[in-house]
Amino acid sequence: MAFPLLVFALAAFVYGMYGFDGVLLRDYSIYLYGGQRVAEGIPPYVGIFDHKGPLAPMLTGLGVVFSEWSNWDDVYAVRLVFFVIGCLTVVAVYLLGRSVFRSQMAGLFAALAFLGCYAYAQPVASGPEPKTPMVLFEALCLLFATQKRWFWSGFFGSLAFLVWQPMAAFPFVTLLLAVTRPKGERYGAALRAVAGIAMPVVTTVAYFYYHGALDALIDGFIVFNALYIYRGKYQTIAVLAGATGNVVAPYGTMLVPILIGLFMILRLYFRRPYEYRFAPILLSLPAPILWSLGDFQLADDFYVFLPYAAIGFGAFLASALRGVRAPRLVAAILCALLLAVALANTLETVSANAAYKLVGTTIGLPEQREGVAEIEERFGDDVKVASIGSPQVMVLLDRENPNPYLWISAGIDKYVDAETPGGWEGWVEDLKEYDPEVISFLAEGQTLFDQHLTSENRRELARWIAPNYHIEEIGPWWVYVKNSPDAENRSQASPDNR
Fold it and tell me: pTM above 0.90?
């Protein structure tokens, strides 16, 4: 018990160095806004439409409820929830490395290597990054599978699936391992695995059914991803090139350990004799590899590989200790070096390139708060605001959008066109009727009109916005501001020109 507590304390110390005042990115605000609605009793997909699983906004909802109970800021409360989840993930990686390689030192090295992965560490304190809990559930699924604890392996694999749909591979591997056990234990193992997998899914379905939102769950979780999502038209070589760019910079300080760790895991495929403890690792790894060949976009898409790389590198260092004369001293030095790398990542001089690749801005949460305060000061506390590309403003104002489509890229505009009464034109007419004074649209350097809308939908939206709104910068935000009645001579910037 002492070592897991030590690992948790080290993780809390390192992650705490990043602080909770990091910029609120668009993707983070999607889940924060969803959490605010969940706290009000509005399920995911109904409060804000998104195409990932429902569990991340439900977890942010717990943070919002905690903020209301403790009278604390909801952004900080949610970040605290994900901070604790991140720290627990480091412990899970330690336990996984120890279990797979039967070495406490392998587990400790794995945990410290995991701590040094900047692209995971930085969002732990400044999220909520939706895939932060996914890694915890993935590591626990693999851990319990190596220990043949089928219910818990299936349970946590199912939770990972409810965060991000491609993680369905993990509960599938659990079930596969369970049903291939020797005849005497096969039935019990399979039954426990099925029970563990089913429990989170059944509970989630019951939650949506209770709120009358089962159709919304099916649409957001399954139908949209099957029929409408836009992932870009890229060849595999282009995907791999983009993946390389989104790994090298954000994970730069741990790039060599990551490569060594993955190589060590790949070596296991050729290891003889066969040992069951490696089976969950070897059976599950091909699935994220195959998925990444077709869809790898950002640094968080590499999260799924981090437990493998970390425990592989931990095993590499642990095996290297066997040939030295003073293994305890060398182990202490290696631990100190890994911890030093993790701490160095918190320094701007070390992480500047990684931070720019990951975050893309030097703006922090205080500046964002000042911007929304300026909006309220200028337009009044009852200002009517809508988001069609930047949910951050709605989150920090704690306002409810007139519709659940606070961002409309990635094919959401096609879904709106197909599923909204009156189609896309009907959705635009509803916005006109709402008549917002301010429309937030700019997120991380992109305008609404850079985000893969169909040309027809872009023109329809521009026909409403261009004559009635002009672009202004308020604090760190670029927003559309409604023209005043005497603004005939004002230069009205066309949205397509931004």
Answer: yes
